[in-house]
Design goal:
Blueprint (H helix, E strand, L loop, with lengths): L1 E7 L6 E4 L4 H10 L5 E6 L5 H12 L3 E5 L4 E6 L6 E2 L1 H6 L7 H8 L1 E5 L12 H9 L3 E5 L2 E5 L8 E3 L5 H11 L5 E5 L5 H12 L3 E3 L5 E5 L8 E3 L4 H14 L2 E5 L7 H9 L3 E3 L6 E3 L9 E2 L11 H9 L4 E5 L8 H8 L3 E5 L2 E5 L33 E2 L5 E6 L9 H11 L5 E5 L9 H4 L1 H9 L3
Parallel strand pairs: 2-15, 3-14, 6-7, 10-11, 18-19
Antiparallel strand pairs: 1-23, 1-24, 3-5, 4-5, 7-9, 8-9, 11-13, 12-13, 15-17, 16-17, 19-21, 20-21, 22-23
Helix pairs in contact: 1-2, 1-7, 4-6, 5-6, 6-7, 8-10, 8-12, 10-12, 11-12
This protein binds uridine-diphosphate-N-acetylglucosamine (UD1).
């Protein structure tokens, strides 16, 4: 089954919008529950397919997992004796599966995790995950597509300097260090709010961690941790998505449940594009300008501009006054979506990790109508996977989804596809964006697309 989104422009994205728990946090929180025997509960869980994949992975390791999307909770009962293997079908379906590596080595003294390989946005190496665990005494090897790690007894504390503040490596090493003998110091560690969230959950489990949110994180290994209930931090990328949707379409959104302090750099850039932003008195309101001004943005690790919001900058510049330079410093290949935006009429010139985007007058019809690609397959759903809900329509909305068997014509990644939707909303005509992303992001209906439909229904 595949979905089609119809965007009838011109329209403004306006309304009151809730923000879910962070995808980039919840999957790691689920992995962190492996550190303690017993039942942990995670709340504010977003309704996304990746959660069902992580739930399946934990079940195969021996956990009992109850995921209740309606209540936005996941209960994970972790047994005393755990399995130690993460299979390829799951790791391939969701890269974040690699985050069980650290907890498994810490708990079981061995782990076998299928290698995820690169993906559409970059090669995504694991060298720091490996080198950090080796510095803590583990032996690592790659055999028949699996990363195998083992240690005779407990891991031991060490000082490890990351080459780059990698989010995934910082998380894995922090979790591994929580049950190691002695003290581990991670230098040049990632500072993302999701790292702080995982660290706070681990502190509540009894871990001794200092320096969360700074470049030096110190973890004093504990003998044992205990299960907890923990609320997932709000998704700053979803909040940023709404903010950009308002900025691109000249709408007004009031974002509920988000943490504006996690978006300081993003909001600064949006102000530069002409948005009015009010974060006083517990409110988070973004009013887009009649037409945005193009902005220059370089993506960087937190607190820099997040790479996950980079596609929206390209979409914004595509309808803006002037030209903007966008530089991608985190993932070397995160430009696939620009070809799709160009098919909608955007003017983008790529040069290595830079994209120069020239503003296209708002309300001009896209020059090129989108055409189906015939080479793409329909997505296949494993039997345990969360499935898209099928045909949905928001009454009065200018955006709708419907089942269709046609081939893909839009980008596969969520941000870019959504940036395409924002851009299409500025057009005078109907634009069809087709194709649900094939893998972990598939239920965009529950995460990003449905809220987009909802705001369209409230458009001003
Ligand atoms: C996480 C997020 C992703 C976000 C990214 C950066 C999840 C599920 N994904 O991805 O949405 O865009 O952080 O904020 O949480 N690298 C190496 N060797 C390593 C580790 C990383 O070369 O051992 C490279 C990667 O290839 C990439 C860069 O470092 O170019 C950043 O990777 P990292 O910060 O680890 O991102 P992820 O954890 O993969």
């Amino acid at each position: 089954m595949e979905e089609k989104i119809e965007v009838h422009g011109p329209t403004k994205v306006s309304g009151v919008l809730p923000v879910s728990g962070a995808k980039n946090s919840v999957l790691k929180l689920m992995a962190a529950t492996l550190l303690a025997t017993g039942e942990s509960t995670i709340t504010n869980v977003p309704e996304i397919q990746d959660v069902t994949i992580m739930a399946e992975l934990l079940r195969r390791l021996g956990c009992t997992v109850r995921y209740d999307p309606a209540q936005q909770t996941v209960d994970i009962d972790v047994p005393e004796v755990l399995g130690h293997q993460a299979d390829y079908d799951l790791v391939r379906a969701m890269r974040a599966s690699i985050s069980v590596l650290g907890p498994l080595v810490a708990r079981c003294h061995r782990a076998e995790v299928a290698l995820p390989g690169g993906d559409a946005i970059g090669s995504r190496g694991l060298d720091m995950h490996r080198a950090g665990l080796e510095a803590m005494g583990a032996k690592l090897s790659i055999e028949r597509g699996f990363l195998r790690a083992s240690v005779a007894d407990n891991l031991h504390g060490t000082t490890y300097h990351l080459d780059y503040p990698s989010v995934g490596a910082t998380e894995n090493l922090m979790m591994a260090a929580a049950l190691a003998d002695g003290t581990t110091v991670l230098e040049n560690a990632a500072r993302e709010p999701e790292i702080v969230d995982i660290g706070r959950m681990m502190q509540a489990m009894g871990a001794h961690i200092d320096g969360l949110g700074t470049s030096t994180i110190t973890i004093e290994g504990a003998q044992k941790l205990h299960p907890v209930t923990h609320r997932t931090v709000p998704d700053r990328i979803v909040a940023g998505t709404w903010a950009f949707a308002a900025a691109v379409t000249g709408g007004r959104v009031e974002i509920e449940g988000a943490e504006p302090a996690h978006l300081t750099m993003v909001l600064e850039k949006l102000r530069g594009a002409g948005c009015t932003i009010d974060t006083s008195q517990g409110r988070f309101i973004v009013q887009g300008p009649e037409r945005p001004t193009a902005i220059n943005v370089s993506t960087l690790p937190y607190p820099g501009f997040p790479t996950d919001l980079q596609p929206f900058v390209v979409a914004l510049n595509a309808v803006a006054e002037g030209s903007g330079m966008v530089t991608e410093n985190v993932f070397e290949a995160r430009w696939g979506f620009t070809a799709e935006l160009e098919r909608l009429g955007a003017r983008v010139r790529l040069d290595g990790h830079h994209a120069r985007v020239d503003g296209f007058p708002r309300n001009s019809s896209p020059e090129h109508r989108s055409r189906p690609r015939t080479s793409e397959r329909e997505p296949r759903w494993p039997s345990w996977a969360w499935r898209p809900r099928g045909s949905q329509r928001s009454p009065g909305s200018s955006i709708s989804t419907a089942d269709t068997n046609t081939s893909w014509i839009a980008c596969r990644m969520p941000g870019p596809r959504f940036s395409g939707a924002s851009w299409a909303a500025c057009s005078r005509e109907k634009t069809e964006l087709r194709g649900v992303p094939e893998r972990g992001y598939a239920p965009l209906t529950g995460w990003r697309v449905t809220p987009f439909m909802a705001v369209a229904a409230h458009r001003g």
